[in-house]
Amino acid sequence: MFYLTKFIKGSLSILLFCLFIFLFLFAELVNKLAIFDNFPGAFFNVNTIFLSIILEAIPFILLGVFVSAIIQSFVSENTIEKLMPRNPYLAVIPAALIGIIFPICECTIIPVVRRLIKKGMPAHVGVVIMLSAPIINPVVFASTYFAFKSTPYMANARMFVSFICTIIIGLIVYRYFRKADVLRTKNHVHHHKHHHPQKNKLLTTFYHASDELFDMGKYLFIGAFLASLFQVFFDRNMLLSLGTSTAGAPGVMMGLSYVLSVCSAADAFIASSFSSTFTKGSLLAFLVFGPMLDIKNTFMLFAYFKARFVLFLMVVVPIVVYVTIYIFQFTVW
After folding, report:
1. CA separation for the pair 242, 238 (Å, rounded)
2. What does the alpha-carbon distance between residue 151 and residue 144 come to, in Å, rounded to a whole number?
3. Which of 60, 166, 303, 332 is a Cys-bridge partner for 105, taking CB atoms 3.0 to 4.6 Å apart?
4. Tell me: the pLDDT tens digits for 48-95?
5. SS (H, E, C) 152-183
6. Sequential DSSP letters for 230-248
7. DSSP-derived secondary structure letter, 137
């Protein structure tokens, strides 16, 4: 019964994706059909945005699942233990800076961190990597710097505030989940017979990568679809009326970053388009919060982590980001 349910879910995801591809390629033809005479054009916009999110995320998803599978096949628990500092408090510092060496998108990082935690990495260290790597990396720094040419200090502020936020969140996670199993339990286990260990490691890597890809794919599709609905139908004029509030604007922009679900390598250009309306603190909130938590990676988190743990992050992350930025904009700017 489990495999039948999994097959149905996977098939529906593929059919949904194929439908959007068809509408994208033949939108004009479909729009001319009599039965679609009164069909709102907004739904074709949903289709276009959905595909843009998916096509933007797929290369990073593929990278993520293969890195995850390589970790599963080639990285031992002992290796993880040797690399991480013994002190749980000091361990969060190199974890927050790992994106400098490995610039990874927020879509890519979730399966990688899940695999590292499964291999023995402490949950709080994995969370710090998951939240910081998509922001604190050279690619994001460069895109933010060029997006805010008139205010280049925004790039430095984004890196600094993200570093502080991820450290605080990691320590809070350690306080409440230091001995807890945060990973979602799989209902099935794959057994592979290894007659030739060295050759089978490569084959096993592809097995794990395919499993991760199809497991994550359906959650990516659902999240991207919801994000595209919000982008098309959400009234942005209402947001603009709140943009000048020092206290309220950061929260508004955090909410906007959540529903837009833009990749961290490109979100700075969207944030800069609001520069004339929103405060600098609110723009910074958009840049820091979005890569940590948005619609599509929320679905991915629920796919890999226990619901209680994900809900905890959904409460802690926005509070820490909001408070940190609120203090930062009054003390530094």
Report:
1. 7
2. 10
3. 60
4. 777 777 776 677 667 767 776 777 677 776 776 677 788 999 999 999
5. CHHHHHHHHHHHHHHHHHHHHHHHHHCCCCCE
6. HHHHS-HHHHHTTTT-TTH
7. S
